[in-house]
Amino acid sequence: MSTMRFSCLLILVGMSTAARAADPIQIASPDGAVRVTVALAAGGRPTYAVRYREAELLRPSRLGVQLAGADLSQNLTLQSAGKTEAITDAYDLATDKRAHCRYAANRRVIRFAGAAGPTLSVVFQVSNDGVAFQYLLEGKAKDVQKMTAEKTTFHLPAAAKGWLHPHAKAQTGWAKTQPSYEEYYQMGIAAGTPSTLGQGWSFPALFEAGGHWVLLTEAGMGRTYCGSHLAHAAPDAEYGVAFAQEPERTTPEAALLPEGRLPWRSPWRVVEVGPSLAPLVESTLTTDLSAPAKAQPGAVGQPGKASWSWVLLGDGQTTYDVQRQFIDYAAAMRWDYCLVDALWDKQIGYDKMQELAAYARSKNVGLLAWYNSNGHWNEAPQTPTNVLFDPASRRQEFARLQQMGIKGVKIDFFGGDGQSFMNYYQDLLTDAAQAGLLVNFHGTTIPRGWHRTYPNLMTMEAVRGFEFLTFDQANTDQEPTHCAVLPFTRNAVGPMDFTPMAFSEIRGKQRRTSNAFELALSVLFQSGIQHYAEIPAGMAAQPAYVQDFVRNLPKRWDDVKFLDGYPGQFAVLARQAGGRWYVAGINATDAPKEVVLDLAKLGLSTGTLITDGDTNRSFRTQPVGNSSLRLTLPARGGFVVQPKM
User: Fold this and answer.
1) Closest CA to 169 of 202, 212, 210
2) Are residues 262 and 333 in the same domain?
3) Is 269 in the same domain as 309?
4) What is the residue-wise DSSP string for 109-172?
5) CATH code where residue 638 lies
6) Rounded CA separation 207/216 (Å)
7) Which of 253, 411, 516, 599 has the largest CB neighbor count within 10 A?
8) Domain ranges, residue 229
């Protein structure tokens, strides 16, 4: 439960009139390292800039919005700059990188007015790990306000480099299922480079400038805004905000661009910053800035691990007998769930699914069921489809699943980021909670803090996951570097259903990673429910100590620490559960990589190292102690360190 407290501690005397409009307005983080400067530039254009100590991370960047009836980005006057207030928050989270989250920031509200339309306030909150701001529109108008554009920009230093995800054109790709945030990151490209698909760059967007790091994303998505991303053109490394594309709405009449009644708040624009990658990897800003948990009407399950047949066996194995085997597999591995994927309604049927759910329950395993999000905005043939969009049909279906003993749903193939889709996601979460169902979104947008607001949201895909490795060799070839960028980008902003870890060979493909690399992904990647790609035969072929490691992995994590790494090259993280630290690392390069770990700093007195053996399909193990560990990882290899149990 949130314990947000807005204190009246005066940190900095604010301006109260427009008479001093020429004076820059300052907001600093509690530790003073992060500083924001707000000013009114020529033409009445509000701007902000961000520094980390002496390093300039964002040059003066634009603020403001364009309404259908008023331009609130220029010809503005400063009405007031309120006092700086210290705010704190504390809450628990079961489905992300940290169980007990603490937030402290300095808050300041700066108010502008134009010749017409509502007043525009920019609410800044500056914490030790970044800057967040949102727009607040106020006035007497009772009619719905419509926004045509957001004028926010992020003006990076000219020499900055980016690790950026190309945003896809709506209703392109397989069965018209784009945008689903499933592209490869362009790594280390010059800031300002136009996007490869012509639609801009998705959030989150990672940049390095002069040895400092910046991660851009958005959080606190309500029901009166659309999802956004970075615009295609970014002259002089100044990125604008782009809204959803025309097809990205649930019906032809549904809201696409933001619209709402006054007072009207936008989502938070989030600028995570740090002198290293550690603050970004360890930050919880996306949930810190999101609404507290809503009351859950029905009892829902908890985070955990799951078996899953589809990724290596395909649609044809979604049958009663095969799924029963995967229930047994989950039980033998002491995993919590088994996911029954697409076509279960045709190839198993509702009655036999109820039998499977009862059998799973007898094995202390929960059954999860797949759904197409609807079907009319995509051409994906997989069923069940056309049962979730209509509210009455959805609630009836969810009630039926609850009666059958199903524990959760995986919902796939969404149609974009329009405002109506932002509402549809939240309608699904609300009704699923009413029926006591967990939720996993696939073919989806990115997390924007919803897993705090809706605790039954376990995970979201929004990543080019393991399934792509089974499609063609080009995807298989890119697995190492792709996996090594995700801890610093996509997985840094919320749970990610990559579906990692396969030791088995992929039919018709040559897997480029070692088995130890794959094992490391079980710790390196975070997801509320972690669905493992490996099948029973592949797991049974591994050494007993590897099976035991996977069997005993925690169901959820309490904390995370960045130990070493560089996006796209290598990554080493530590995750804590029950007071014990697990360490995992991967080398994505084609050359050996030396890693040095100070296990004493983690309080890891004794443990077991599992890493590559003589071949990339074998393992070796050795005890480790409370000391420095120097380890040479082979090309595309990996390791884990398990604490003494």
Assistant:
1) 202
2) no
3) no
4) EEEEE-SSS-EEEEEEEEETTEEEEEEEEE-S--SPEEEEEE--EEE--TT-EEEEEEPPPTT-
5) 3.20.20.70
6) 8
7) 516
8) 5-288
